[in-house]
Amino acid sequence: MTIEENRILLPKSELPASWYNVLPELPEPLGPYLGADQKPVEPSALAAIFPKALIEQEMSNQSIHPIPAPVLEALALWRPTPLIRAKRLEKALGVKSRIYFKDESVSPSGSHKSNTAMAQAYYNRQEGITRLTTETGAGQWGTALAIAAKHFGIDVRVFMVKISLTQKPYRKVIMNMMGAEVFPSPSEVTKAGRDALAKDPQALGTLGLAISEAVEEAASRPDTNYVLGSVLNHVILHQTVIGQEVQKQLALAGEKPDYLIACHGGGSNFGGLVAPYVPMIKSGEKITAIAAEPISCPTLTAGKFTYDAGDTAGFTPLMPMYSLGTDFQPPAIHAGGLRYHGASPIVSSLLKSGVIKAQAVTAEQVFKFAKLLANSEYIIAAPESAHALAVTCLKALELESLGQSACLVFTLSGHGLLDLSAYESAA
Ligand SMILES: Cc1ncc(COP(=O)(O)O)c(C=O)c1O
After folding, report:
1. Which of 106, 113, 385 has most ligand 1 atoms within 8 Å of its beta carbon, as the pocket-test mutant?
2. What order of strands is seen across the sheet that includes strand 224-226?
3. Domains of the chain with bracketed CATH
4. Average per-residue pLDDT in the chain?
5. In ligand 1, which atom is closest to the CA atom of 411?
């Protein structure tokens, strides 16, 4: 293990060999997923769209899941990722706090989404699936899946939220280069899409609707499965490589975290960072985990804890989660990946039981601190990640005003090099 200036790096041999499952650690067991008849969904009902291995992980009570060798090899293409002490950002803020960020932007897709994309593509291929459908908001997940599917030899069709496709046309170019087909959602390809267009031909699209389109198509073809880039338990499981690496890297730096902060769209990068720390938080260690979300899509801070569908058409099971309602239409904020009405059941449960906190920030705050990061660390953060950055900076400034300092860690879940139109219009 080496520390090069402010970069805390781990050798390949320190790549976590297993995923950490937080389900057995939740203060209250998760309620079952329910069907439209309000009865618990049997695992066999999910088999029409998911491989068996992922259904088992979704409902598993086993704490440790070894990572299969082909997935480890794929992750080793870019992992372990660096943990970086943002000293110039600290100086620019004028704070004594130590700020670290886990740099997930170094993956082939430019975000943390590759961590689960590789695993999900592998398990589907193992079970004979040759075609996958999915939705994407910002395009990061679609890009990650297109690359993972290329790696494991699977075809992909992506339904991309129309407003995000307009804002980020180059994401489509990358997905197409990897061999994936991309449709703006709502599309004419599915009934859910056609119904939405009939209601509103100008619809900007939502993640909930794009999920309906992808699920509808997967359910109607035996060679096709559906994959989701966030929300579900197995997605958070795959993302726990983030938190496990952070634990080793902070130990190497002689630090313990006071604050763990990540942005929250559906909960996967937040869950991946925080899940391995849940046993410590529960045992009374003073670690405050904060999920950062936009004030314009305030699922965790203003949503209701309820059973709700993951999509607009109601094809997915009902899940126990914080939700703004499946009809919620977020304004066209630029953080496309944070435009989701719901939240992961795991993150919802942790919030409800007080293990974690949530904080909403304004677009002005997000872009102000994104600019400060660019000017100090020379990094263009994805607008989603800049929500975590903003909460981190606000907390560091608040502590400073109280004459205090702390160790704050946030996830840089992705880079913003394909989000420049968002920064241009915010300037
Ligand atoms: C860079 C980036 N960060 C964060 C998110 C939010 O997703 P999640 O809450 O699952 O981490 C997205 C979603 O597309 C994203 O692209």
Report:
1. 113
2. 181-185, 155-161, 131-136, 224-226
3. 2-16+68-110+233-426 (3.40.50.1100)
4. 95
5. 3
Residue 206 CA to ligand 1 centre (angstroms): 15
Residue 2's pLDDT band (cuts 50, 70, 90): low
Phi-psi domain of 384 (left: phi exceeds 0; alpha: psi -120 through 50; beta: other): alpha
Termini Cα distance of the chain: 40
Mean pLDDT of 8-34: 97
Task: Break the chain down into helix, strand, coil percent, rounded to 5.
Answer: 45, 20, 35
Convert 205-250 into a string of H (helix), E (strand) and C (coil): CCHHHHHHHHHHHHHCCCCEEECCCCCCHHHHHHHHHHHHHHHHHH
pLDDT band at 397; cut points 50, 70, 90? very high
User: What tens digit of pLDDT does each residue of 24-59 get?
Assistant: 999 999 999 999 899 999 989 899 899 999 999 999
Q: Give residue 309's pLDDT.
A: 93
**What is the rounded CA–CA span in Å between residue 108 and residue 100?**
22
> Side chain identity at 127, as an amino acid letter?
E
Residue 108, pLDDT above cutoff 70 = yes
Q: Is 225:219 a contact under the CB 8 Å cutoff?
A: no
283 CB burial (10 A radius; 0-12, 13-18, 19+): exposed
Q: Which helix (H) or strand (E) holds 83?
A: strand 83-85
Ligand 1 atom at shortest distance from the alpha carbon of 140: 16
Residue 264 CA to ligand 1 center (angstroms) comes to 7
Q: Say what the pLDDT of residue 331 is.
A: 79
For ligand 1, atom 1, name the residue with the nearest CA.
414
Q: Which residue has the higher pLDDT, 204 or 111?
A: 111
Q: Pocket of ligand 1, candidates 101, 105, 111: which has the most ligand atoms within 8 Å of its Cβ, to mutate?
A: 111
Ligand 1, residue 265: give the atom nearest the CA.
Answer: 9
Residues near ligand 1 (Cβ within 6 A): 111, 137-138, 140-141, 230, 263-270, 337-338, 382, 384-385, 413-414
